[in-house]
Task: structure prediction
Amino acid sequence: MKNRFLICLTGFALLVVSGISQSGFAQNAEHRAGALKSVEWSASKARVHVDCDKQQSLGQALQHARPGTTIFFTGTCHEQIQIREDYIRLRGMHGAVIDGGIGEILFPGTITVQGARGVMIKNLTVQNGPDQGIVIEANSSALLENVTTTGNTTTGVTVDSSYAELKNVNANENGSGFDFFTSATVIAQGALTAENNSGGPGVAVNGNATLELRGAIVETHNNGGDGVLLVNNANLMILSFPESQGSGVRASANRGNAGMFLANSNVAIVGSQYAGSGANFFDIKDHQGPGMLLISSNLASPFATARFNLTSNGAGMVLVDNTDVTIVGGLQISGNFGPGIVGEGAGVVRIEQNPDNPSAISGNFAPDMVLSFGTRLVLDEHIANAVICDGSVLTLRAGCS
Result:
C-alpha cells in the first residue's frame, strides 16, 4: 500500500453518461447505503463505557464485544485497535482521542475495520499513528461521522475493497489525506476536508473505486500532492438525488501535478431535472500546474448542473490522450497564467452555452484555447475569443482564430 500513488496509468473505461443514475455501480452503492442505514435499529442494545484516562482499554472492550455493542469512551486512549465484529458502534464523548503513537505497528491503522459490516465510528480524533489513521478493508462496511485524523505517518483515512459513508470527516496534517481503492465505494456527505497533508494528495481514488458526493463539499488545500487524484478507472460522481445537489470540490495551493488530476478515470455530474441550475461546483485555484489535468479520461456535465471556476493556475484545463469532455454551461476559466484550455491529442471537447448557467473562457495570460494533434472541438460562439489550432484540429460551430 505504500506505493499506491505510483499506479501504472493503463487501461481505459468509457463512462456512459446517458442513464448514469441507473448504472450498475450507482445502483449498488444506493442499495448498500440503504442496508447500512438500517443498522441504526437492527443492532442490539449492549452498551459499554470506557474511560481511557483511568487506564481502561478500548482493545480489551472490543475483545469481549458481541455484534451490536456500543462502546462509549472518553479521554485519550494510547493504543491501536481492530474491529472485526459486525455492527460495533464506537462513540467518543467529550473530545475523545485515540493516539496510535505507541512505538510499534500492530495493525494497518490506529483503527482498523477488517471484514466487519455495519460498523459506526463517531465523534473522535485519531492521531499520531505510525502508519495509517483509519483503515476500512476486506469487504467491510462502515460509517465515519464527525471524525478527525491528524498526525498519522501515511494516510489519514483508507477504504480498501469496502463500502463507507463519510460524514464530516477531516484528514489534516498526515502524510496524505484520503485514499479509496480496489473497487471501494465511498459516499461522502457534509464536509470532507484534506488540508496540509505533507507528502501525498488530499483525496485519492483509484483501482476501480468510486467516490460519490451526496451533499458533500470536498475541501482540499495545501497538500503535498494533487488536490484530488483519480487514476486507474476511478469515478467521481454527483448523481441526480435531490440531496446530492449543492455538492462540490474546492481545491487550492496543492503542490502536485494539478489541482485535480485524472488518468484513465471519469467525472460525471448528472441530473436532467435540475438542468441549468449550476447547483454543484468545482472551484480550483492557485496551483503552479493546471487547475485540471485529464489524461485518457472523461469529464461529463451535460445538463448545466455544475459550475467550473478555474483561476490563478498554471493553465485552466489540460486535456491529452483521447480525453473526452462535455461541459454544457457553467465553465468559467479566467486569470490563469497559461492558456484557458490546452488540448493535445484530446478526443471530443464539447463546450456549449446555457443561458441560465453561462460559460466564458477569457482573461487568461495566454490564448483562451490552444489545440493540436487531432483534437476535435465543438464550441458554441461567444464562449472563447482566441482559439489557436494546428492543421489537424477539427472544429464545429465556432472555429479557430
Summary: The two ends are 48 Å apart (CA to CA). The first strand starts at residue 47 and ends at 51. The longest helix spans residues 24-37.
